[in-house]
Amino acid sequence: MKNDQKSLKENYQLKTRRSMSKGVNVPSHDSVIRVMMMKSGVCTRLASLAPFSLKRQHCNLPLLSLNKSRKLCSHSYKNDQTNVNCYLPPWFSIAPMMDWTDNHYRTLARMITKHAWLYTEMVVAETIVHQKDNLDRFLAFPPEQHPIVLQLGGSNLDNLAKAAKLANAYGYDEINLNCGCPSGKVAGHGCFGVRLMLNPKFVGDAMSAIGANCDAPVSVKCRIGVDDHDSYGELCDFIYTIASQSPTRHFVIHARKALLNGISPAKNRTVPPLKYEYYFGLLRDFPDLQFTMNGGITSIDEVNAARRQGAYGVMVGRAAYNNPWPTLAYVDSSVYGAPGTSISRRQVLEQFQVYSDSVLGQYGPNKPSIRQLVKPLLHLFHSEPGNGLWKRKADAAFHRCETMKSFLEKTLDAIPDSVLDSTPDTNSCCSEDTFADIYGFLPPPYKFREQELLCV
Predict the structure, then answer these.
(1) For residue 390, what are the contacts with CB-CB under 8 A and spacing of at least 6?
(2) Of these four, 29, 46, 116, 393, which has the most CB atoms within 10 Å of its CB?
(3) For residue 88, is pLDDT > 90?
(4) pLDDT band at 450 (very low <50, low <70, confident <90, very high)
(5) Which residue of the set 179, 181, 214, 222 is catalytic?
């Protein structure tokens, strides 16, 4: 079974690469809707879904240099044809995290890794629609942050379509819909986030609306279930319904279900057990789709272990924020096989100082504070000598410093030169077989309920 599944997946990936290398244009999903089924004793797969447009291509071109202009991608950027929009695939991505993955953190992350895919914080569609005169505050980003994905949240089709159209001017490389957030404000009062998993037909309509109003590919980030709706079959129904009714070909799967019975979002990240076997089951049953694994991954070793077993991509969340140096410094060399970074943390801080002081030199209502700019730096020396003293000095310096340069001058003497000047050890990443036996635990192959699903 494993060899047959691997062969199917390799054939699909080969055909995809050939099509992309030839610049094939696939008709828009609005022009043709075609659903065909193929079943076999090995696996059940989607043979043909709603045709979609290859709106972006992944290839081996370098990212924009950090030495180039830091002008934000705003409305003036939408007609800039110098951005090739051609990057390595999203084999590693950093999860969207509210109050964390803002412009400042993403700038720091891009200084450490050139190839990881970055996600914005979730932006509610209504916010974009009602802030049309202040869009840069929510959507603008420096061009060197490519490849970057905008995550939208919402449950109103009209507003999701309008938000996608407004965001299209900013040149995001993908637009993602949040179907996984269990927060009470989102899934409860907001009636979106993970609650959308209970209505897959609506999500399919939403993805069609988003895709029809942007030039970028679209994707969905979801859990494996909600409350008692947590069977593998129900997850597959969700995936199939969306893929058959929209141009969505990429799903980010958080391998836990969500509990909406009052537990906190933090407990929703730990209490429901991880079921990676569901993720690998999706790889088997939907080889024509792309799935990124999310949830519980804390190291590059685990990322590579998942990819060795067939994972298309892996998304890392809090580990990339709370321990950015050992997590992100090995992405380019270990995950992508690209030349590894030889940059030190001192050099990263020098670059970040230039960025920060240029931002602080701007005037206007959206000017950040020194504390906001320093926030993503606070974990850069996690578990290193001097980290505790540096954080105490940082807390005191917030009240006295008005520039990043002065802040670093007053605090960095707490960190030994050996830590500041060390570069990532290319030999430090070992091999783990975290998922070596996963195919022995897969759920039974998905059996399509074609007529029932298509008539919902």
Answers:
(1) 381, 411, 412, 414, 415
(2) 116
(3) yes
(4) low
(5) 181
Residue 43 annotated among the catalytic residues of the structure:
no
The helix/strand/coil state of 424 is coil
The yes-or-no verdict on residue 439 having pLDDT over 70 is yes
Mean pLDDT of 80-98: 78
> Exposed (0-12), middle (13-18) or buried (19+): which is 189, by Cβ within 10 Å?
exposed
1-32 per-residue burial string, b: 16 or more CB within 10 A, e: under 16? eeeebbebbeeeeeebeeeeeeeeeeeebeee
Amino acid code (one letter) for 288:
D
Backbone angles phi, psi at 226, to 5 degrees: -135, 125
Q: Determine phi and psi for 160, rounding to 5 degrees.
A: -65, -40
User: From CA 295, how far away is CA 142, in angstroms rounded?
Assistant: 28
Q: In this structure, what DSSP letter does residue 224 have? A: S
Looking at residue 452, its pLDDT comes to 53
What's the pLDDT score for residue 454? 52
pLDDT tens digits, residue range 256-274?
A: 999 987 778 888 888 899 9
User: How far from 314 is each of 61, 144, 327, 377, CA to CA, in Å?
Assistant: 21, 22, 13, 24
Q: pLDDT digit string (tens) for 93-139?
A: 999 999 999 999 999 999 999 999 999 999 999 999 999 999 999 99
> For residue 377, what are the CA distances in angstroms to 93, 109, 144, 372, 383?
19, 10, 19, 10, 14
Amino acid making up residue 53: S
Q: What is the 3-state secondary structure (H, E, C) of 91-136?
A: CEEECCCCCCCCHHHHHHHHHHCCCCEEEEEEEEHHHHHHCHHHCH
Cβ atoms 330, 336 nearer than 8 A: no
**Among 172, 196, 164, which Cα is nearest to 56's?**
172
Which of 290, 289, 311 is CA-nearest to residue 439? 311
In single-letter form, the type of residue at position 172 comes to: Y
Single out the residue of 258, 169, 161, 256 nearest to residue 218, CA to CA. 161
Token pair of 86 as six digits: 């051609």
Q: What is the pTM of this model?
A: 0.82
Cβ neighbours, 10 Å, residue 73 = 23
Contacts for 98 with CB less than 8 Å, ≥ 6 apart: 121, 122
Q: What is the pLDDT of residues 315-356, one digit of tens each?
A: 999 999 999 999 999 999 999 999 866 899 999 999 999 999
The confidence band for 447, taking pLDDT boundaries of 50, 70 and 90, is confident
Q: How far apart are CA 139 and CA 435, in angstroms?
A: 37
Q: CB pairs under 8 A, 24+ apart, for 362-366?
A: 366/136, 366/137
